[in-house]
Amino acid sequence: MVQPTRPPANGFVAAARKVYNPLGFAKGYNFVLFFIFFGAFMGFTLARFEYLNFSIFCGPGGAAPGECFYYQKRIEQIGIKMHLGAILPASFLACFQFVPVIRHKVLLFHRINGYLIILLSLVSTAGIFMFLRNAFGGGIETQTGVGLLSIMFIGSMMLAFINIKKLQIEQHRAWMLRAWFYAGSIITIRLIQITAATVISNMGTYYVSRPCDQVAFMVDNVNRTLALYPDCASYFSGENPGQQTVVHADLPGATSAAEAGAAVGMVFGMAVWLALAIHAIGIEIYLHLTPAEAERLRNVSYKRQLEAGLHPAGRAGITADRIGDSEKWQPGDRSGQNRSGHEDVDPYFYVPASNTDKVNYIRREVYDPIEALGSSATWYVAELEDLEETLVIGCGTVRNTDDCRARGTHLVANKLKNTIVVCPSYFFNNGAVASDEAEEQSMSTWRLERKLLPAAGFALLHEVSHITSVVGDFEYWTDELASTDHAYPPSECIKLPDLRRINNAQNYALFALDVRTNPGYTSKQVDMDIKDPQQFALRWLRAGVSGKTEEP
Length: 552
Hints:
CATH topology of the domain at 356-551: Collagenase (Catalytic Domain)
Number of helices: 26
Shape: elongated
Mean pLDDT: 81
Helix content: 55-70%
Number of strands: 7
Largest sheet: 3 strands, mixed
Low-confidence stretches: 333-345, 376-386, 521-531, 533-552
CATH architecture of the domain at 356-551: 3-Layer(aba) Sandwich
Distance between the termini: 38 Å
């Protein structure tokens, strides 16, 4: 379950979070888009599951008028059955692939389901080409449009498959989104088709040629067929089995099923091209509006490719900087600038001094939320029953907290439950951890000797950077939740690879300690002088977990 990073703006947002946070959505707009597009896709799919019964599909209210005439032929009947029998289950299962909590919590299902969807999609697309020649009149514009849609759908799915096999997650996401948005154009095709058919029917000036055998199948009465379409006399006499006749396109006021079939058939090709263009442009707009998510996933890809031994890490899949002329991507470099050995860099995150965008981003997404806990907690105190949006700091014992039994453990953070457990050693250890003197000694030793002494505030800051609801928006977290623990000694922290350095909780605590003990590095300092501990405790409780008074 994803935890919110800030208090809800109103009651509606608070109620909405109880719906979309358990599904794994961190941001409301993502859930809204999912609900609209995949909700419609799921509804459309479920409404057509009855078509798996071929007699229902070719019965009243099923396929478009005249389409089932060609499905009497064995090859085309096999094709439509293959298509419906594969694409409907594939579409149903695909909707679950885009639910974040399933991807994160039930990864095995996500993988097996993905393989099954790809297999079903291949079968369904093969079926399309078995009946495409005569679909909706069989016009060239229809055949090329449906053919292109099928190629784009399968091509995107294959690119997504290749990329995930190379652990190129951001490309897998992009191509899978493309594939199913292309497939989803079938809904838009239907809307455009019905609208256009109604428009041309009202105009009353559109006609189309149809074979007499199909017309006779739709009218289902020889005498009435001859009365409406006298050109078909040569067909019934056997003189010309391939005789065609002109049919008026009219959907709402049709005098026969042939006129309704002509109306929906002659606009189908146009609907395919227009709907495909709308969906193709729409998904590209979405992908270009979410570069932060793509960058976050690319950093995740970099980590997993390193662990799997794939080379080159970060671009082992099909990426623009590997097969094209794009600038080489650098892990953890949000601005995309190449690092120079002659430029001043921060030792804890390896951020160039000139890269102010990334410096500000780290401050905004990691340090500012921690600092803001003080003001946010005022609201939480009034709403303590909503523990999902409250950072809880509690005391543990070696009896009830397994992690506290480990030697040297002072605090334990649970990323997803918004809790930090304080172990007994945090309060004792001869005062070396939790005391004002220890805090002052820690800062003094760091300032003069660059040696790290354990202190309560330092340890607490370290643990807060593990809490997803506080820092979960940061795009560089490799586990997509919060900071992790790769190293503790300062000498080891600054030697970490770039991506681990920006993910290591101790690096954030060390940077904060550096800023605290060297005032020249910052414009804001924390006042550690407390005149009245009792009043301070009350102010701390009301203000929140940041506690200390701040002044310029």
